UniProtKB/TrEMBL annotation:
Keywords: Hydrolase
Domain AB hydrolase-1 span(s) in chain numbering: 11-109
Superkingdom of this protein's organism: Bacteria
Lineage: Bacteria, Pseudomonadati, Bacteroidota, Flavobacteriia, Flavobacteriales
Protein name, entry field: Pimeloyl-ACP methyl ester carboxylesterase
Pfam families linked to this entry: Abhydrolase_1
Length: 254
């Protein structure tokens, strides 16, 4: 069963992180959604955070995990939000289990195929040798040779934890990602459609959802609303959390 944090009372609202992320990334916004009247479930997807590790890693497997999570928690009608990889999971979940999903929110990802672009990050992660018992600073020094962006490095370093005294490790299952890397860019199948209200939010400075993608998105999600957060990149919910919260809660309460 997936690890989750459940807070609040009201309509169940599932939130799913992106690649190499975890539920903690959404902690602050989750608290705001609780105050807005939702029962918030922030998940760690398989091979991420505190959830289980598995050799199998695909969108189909992650969707099945979320479905089993809903069954176990008696969630029969939900709203769902996913960012990046989590957005792909949310899209596939909504189109294959529309009887469960009332409203869908997708943050800065589309249903199309995405070419692999995490090579530098994965090279940096694979360069860390935990057998020599590196410190947190040692790990950051190694990552900095591959990942120049400070914010991205800090995001990755959130995955460090003390496996035992003096021994750090990453929470995610790096081996599974190395073996299944092409899975993350997989497109939504052409025939899949979700007819309920759907909100896509993109960052104005992000190239993940471009104007030429909109017609393709609408084929899968005909009841589409698209919003853009100006001056924000792919991490739009972290760069402008106030506007992100306003746009999503307005949509959820319509």
């Amino acid at each position: 069963m997936l690890y989750s944090k459940i807070e609040g009372e009201g309509k169940p609202f599932i939130i799913m992180h992106g690649f190499l992320g975890m539920s903690d990334n959404w902690k602050t916004l989750a608290g705001q959604y609780v105050e807005a009247g939702f029962q918030v479930h922030i998940l760690d997807l398989r091979n991420h955070g505190r959830s289980f590790h598995s050799e199998e890693w695909s969108y189909e497997a992650m969707v099945q995990d979320v479905y089993e999570y809903c069954q176990a928690n008696n969630l029969t009608r939900i709203d769902i939000l996913g960012h990046s990889m989590g957005g792909k999971v949310a899209m596939l979940f909504a189109t294959t289990h529309p009887e469960i999903v009332d409203k869908l929110i997708v943050a800065d990802i589309g249903p199309r195929f995405y070419k692999q672009h995490h090579q530098d990050i994965l090279a940096g992660l694979n360069a860390v040798d935990f057998s020599v018992k590196p410190s947190r600073n040692d790990v950051e020094a190694i990552l900095s040779q591959y990942v120049t962006d400070f914010g991205t490095r800090q995001f990755l370093l959130k995955n460090l934890y003390w496996k035992e005294p003096g021994q750090l490790a990453f929470r995610f299952n790096l081996e599974a990602f190395n073996n299944n890397l092409d899975a993350i860019g997989k497109p939504l199948a052409d025939y899949l459609v979700f007819n309920n209200p759907t909100l896509f939010i993109r960052g104005g400075n992000s190239g993940y959802i471009q104007d030429q993608d909109i017609d393709g998105i609408r084929k899968h999600f005909p009841n589409l609303k698209l919003e853009t957060i100006p001056n924000a990149g792919h991490w739009l919910h972290a760069e402008n959390p106030q506007l992100f919260f306003e746009l999503t809660t307005t949509f959820l309460k319509e």
